[in-house]
Amino acid sequence: MNRRNILLSAATIATAFASPLGYAQDAPIRLIVPYAPGGPLDVTSRALAERVRDTLGTVIIDNKAGAGGNIGADAVAKAAPDGLTIGLAATATHAVNPWLYSRMPYDAAKDFSGITQMVSVPNVLVINSAKAAELKINNVADLIAYAKANPAKLNYGSGGNGSAGHLAGEMFKQRAGIYALHIPYRGASPAQLALLAGEVDFNIDNLAAAAPNIRSGKLKALAVTSPQASAMLPGVPPLSATFKGFAIETWWGLVAPAGTPKPIIAKLNKAFVAALNAPETKTRFAALMAEPVGTTPEQFDAFMASERAKYQQVVKASGAKVD
Q1: What tens-digit pLDDT sequence spans the chain (323 residues)?
Q2: What number of other Cβ atoms are within 10 A of residue 18's Cβ?
Q3: What residues pair up with 219 in beta bridges, in sequence order?
Q4: Nearest Cα residue to 160 out of 100, 218, 103, 223
Q5: Could you write out the three-class secondary structure of the chain?
Q6: Cβ contacts of 50 within 8 Å, gap of 6 or more
Q7: Is residue 75 within 8 Å of 64, Cβ to Cβ?
Q8: Measured between alpha carbons, how far apart are the two ends of the chain, in Å?
Q9: Cα(85)–Cα(181) distance, integer angstroms
Q10: Which end of the chain has the lower number of beta carbons within 10 A, N or C?
């Protein structure tokens, strides 16, 4: 082999090792989850990280919670677009917060490239089971009738002003023509604990978080907020059966910084969608009441844009604002 061929071969090998997400990749991928460890978003991210180990190598979960998810999302937006830092995009960070916060550190529409949606989870209207028995509330109609017969006696909790639970609660109140005092908590978990303790009368929570207490009988599910009934909660009707077009679901997915080369996005998409479609993933997610949803990058970008447009109106109608 002559000197020129040796040099070309060496250059080719060096390029393969240096190329982001190349077959000889040594550097791990960092997946930023903009929420604390232990919740459904974190658990599903860790499950996927395990599934893509053979195709993408090591994926390290980096939890960066705070400011309603804005701190972690901003870290993704400002990362190098080389495929080695990706992140979780959620209903709050990429659809609600742009309208809720007076000042945003990132542009949800311009600073990210979609990889794939991961999950869709119905929200569920739940009431404390003991309270339901005491007030004889067995369904949505009973709840509305009680609220109208007892003005200003009901309240509901949420994970904070502008949270999905708050916005869904305000939509429910508007459509039902009832009043219930909103009590915001510092996160969905404290709000659920308040419901279990009887501090609040009802919540609209994501099914993944509420499911264990529904199964145990501590919470009574009255309706889901998905457009149709959920197979994960048989016998529980959708709110759209009472209020046509009512739909608020919790979703999350994977994004990369804007400007990440399309071949890298394609490689990430292929690996993560395959992981989402694996039978083991579906079984594991089902235990969390979460449905895996794999999409193309273009489909996820279009979906997030449609969700931002929807929540612009919902947030405005709620009057919620964070300075």
Answers
A1: 444 444 444 444 344 334 455 543 579 999 999 998 988 899 999 999 999 999 999 999 999 998 889 999 999 999 999 999 999 999 999 999 999 999 999 999 999 999 999 998 889 999 999 999 999 999 999 999 999 999 989 999 998 888 888 999 998 998 999 999 999 998 888 999 999 999 999 999 988 789 889 999 999 999 999 888 988 888 999 999 999 988 888 899 999 999 999 999 999 999 999 999 999 999 998 888 788 999 999 999 999 999 999 999 889 888 888 87
A2: 11
A3: 128
A4: 100
A5: CCHHHHHHHHHHHHHHHHCCCCCCCCCCEEEEECCCCCCHHHHHHHHHHHHCHHHHCCEEEEECCCHHHHHHHHHHHCCCCCCCEEEEEEHHHHHHHHHHECCCCCCCCCCEEEEEEEEEEEEEEEEEHHHHHHHCCCCHHHHHHHHHHCCCCCEEEECCCCCHHHHHHHHHHHHHCCCCEEEECCCHHHHHHHHHHCCCCEEEEEHHHHHHHHHCCCEEEEEECCCCCCCCCCCCCEHHHCCCCCCCEEEEEEEEECCCCHHHHHHHHHHHHHHHHCHHHHHHHHCCCCEECCCCHHHHHHHHHHHHHHHHHHHHHHCCCEC
A6: none
A7: yes
A8: 67
A9: 41
A10: C
Burial of 9 (0-12, 13-18, 19+ CB in 10 A): exposed
Kindly state the tokens that stand for 51: 């599934």
Tokens standing for 89?
Answer: 């995009």
Among all chains, which residue has been given the structure tokens 């070309």?
A: 8
Report d(CA 34, CA 94) in Å as an integer. 12
Distances (CA, A) of 266 to 17, 76, 81, 139, 272: 19, 18, 14, 46, 10
Residue type, 270: K
The residue type found at 318 is S
Question: Is-contact 171 249, C-beta < 8 A?
Answer: no
Closest CA to 162 of 93, 65, 96: 96
